[in-house]
Amino acid sequence: MHAPGHDESERAGIGALLSGSGVTVSAAEADIIRRSVARIRAAAASLLAAIPFDLPSERFYGLLESDAAREDKA
Amino acid sequence: MSDPTILTLCEAAAAIAENRLRAETLVEACLDRIERLQPKLNCFIRTAAASARAAARAADEAVKAGRRLGPLHGVPLAHKDMFYRAGEICTCGSKIRADFVPDHTATVLDRLDAAGAIELGRLNMAEFAMGPTGHNSHFGRCGNPWNPEHISGGSSSGSGAAVAAGMAFGALGSDTGGSVRLPAAMCGVVGIKPTQTRVSLYGAMPLAPSLDCVGVLARSVRDCARLLSVIAGADANDPKASRRAVPDYERGLEEMSQPGALAGISVGIPSRYYYDDIDDEVGTLLSEARRVLESGGAAVVDATIADHGALADLSGAVLAAEAAALHLPWLRERPGDYSDQVRARLLVGLGVPASLYLQALQARAHFLEQILQETFARCDVLLLPVLKRPVPSAAETDIGGSAAMPKVIGEIAGATRPLNYLGLPGLVVPIGRTRNGLPQGMQLVARPFREGLLFRVGAAYEARAGHRAERPAF
């Protein structure tokens, strides 16, 4: 549950972010952005807290290859 | 042969190679079908009839001369209009690139050309490959061949519809959040999104480079196996393309119709997310598919997975952020040249914080490791839905950039997006039709680079289920 005024401040924050990008955004589009980003933030909050500090992004590609190589040997 | 377009791609290739069928006959049959069905379905953005006829004549001459033939010699294909060919317009389904002429050719097109394939033209698609329904406000909506009032799925809308309608024997598509798998399932054809780095992306329009994947659609599992064998592999022009050797994906597929062909293979059914709130009819078709796999000797087991609903949202965040970065100059200078829906979806990417985007990329390895160690330790393939409900009508999904848009798109792509995030291969095979007459597909998922296993399981299913013979009536 958000505190009163939370949506307003979030909307203002997104408005400021987008105006800095040089892109024109309508009120309806800003609302879609606000709701979509809120959903993404919720997913991130539930999934990303436990990610190890030292995990490099590149490991993803290494893992694709190494898993296949391990399976080949098995 | 009364209608050669009923052949599969591999049957057509064999008939040409053995001089039982001329490539010219095949191309003319496809062009005739395109001319007849284009007004109903709008699959093509443009055709290349003259060059296709010339290529067919050359292909027939090569057969007569006894020259060495490639595995797709004389076979007519058509491709989503986002694969570059030097000197030819490539619209990317957009107004912004209506006159764009690339100066280089996509690696996948070079490889199809070298294998002897003939290109019939360019297929309709969602604007900039961003949309799961098949709507396109610039080139018109692509209709579903089973009922044109329903959506074909997207973004490779023309690829799914043209292959299902017998206008082409196979097609390239791209899959960043489900764009091969959704039209394959909705149009009743086979489609594969390979492992993230299996196929070169050089010369394919980028949408979100961390998630983009080139895939293929065709009318049988073996057809897809052949097409993937041709286009996969290392490419000096794409450093991310895997250097792993490309197996002969067709090997062993013939034997998959034998009794017990799936003995020793375990099929996992996830206990959460994918089957939550699934439509009864779709659930029944998937249960029947499960029984067919069991009849071939497969063991069906429960599979544990993480919160893939949230993974779908993270996948959406990466897609939106990368697409927005690529499109930023046009969003500033030509905002009115986008459809409302694509502009609104791109703008979402500008609202994704850089820290969250980078965290989402960092976490991919964690979630990939988790599914490999926990889920695929207990099963060889996962059996998932593609779409959790019957294929909707065009009117139901004509939502433009309205407030309903994120929810509608999220529901359609909810079962396909997690795979792009995890980089895993997924094969879609038709599993029958719901009461509205529209097809459904299942999604078989395996460990990285196990496309061969997916083809074998898909072929075993196909041989037992008999859906391959089904074709929309015109």
Describe, in short, the structure shown:
Chain A has 74 residues and is an all-alpha fold.
Q: How would you describe this protein?
A:
The complex is a heterodimer of chains A (74) and B (474). Chain A is an all-alpha fold and 74 residues long. Chain A has 3 helices and no strands. Chain B has a single domain (4-469), classed as Alpha-Beta Complex (Amidase signature (AS) enzymes). The interface between A and B is large, with 42 and 51 residues.
What's the structural blueprint in terms of helices and strands?
The complex is a heterodimer of chains A (74) and B (474).
Chain A: H1 6-21, H2 27-47, H3 59-73
Helix pairs in contact in A: 1-2
Chain B: H1 9-17, H2 23-41, E1 44-47, H3 49-64, E2 76-80, H4 107-114, E3 118-123, E4 143-144, E5 147-151, H5 157-164, E6 170-174, H6 181-187, E7 190-193, E8 214-218, H7 221-231, E9 266-270, H8 280-295, E10 299-303, H9 308-333, H10 340-350, H11 354-375, E11 381-385, H12 405-412, H13 417-422, E12 426-433, E13 439-445, H14 451-465
Parallel strand pairs in B: 2-3, 2-6, 9-10, 9-11
Antiparallel strand pairs in B: 1-3, 4-5, 6-8, 7-8, 7-12, 11-13, 12-13
Helix pairs in contact in B: 2-3, 5-6, 7-14, 9-10, 9-11
List its salient traits.
heterodimer; A: 74 residues; mainly alpha; elongated; B: 474 residues; alpha/beta; Amidase signature (AS) enzymes; two-stranded antiparallel sheet; 14 helices; 13 strands; 38% helix; globular
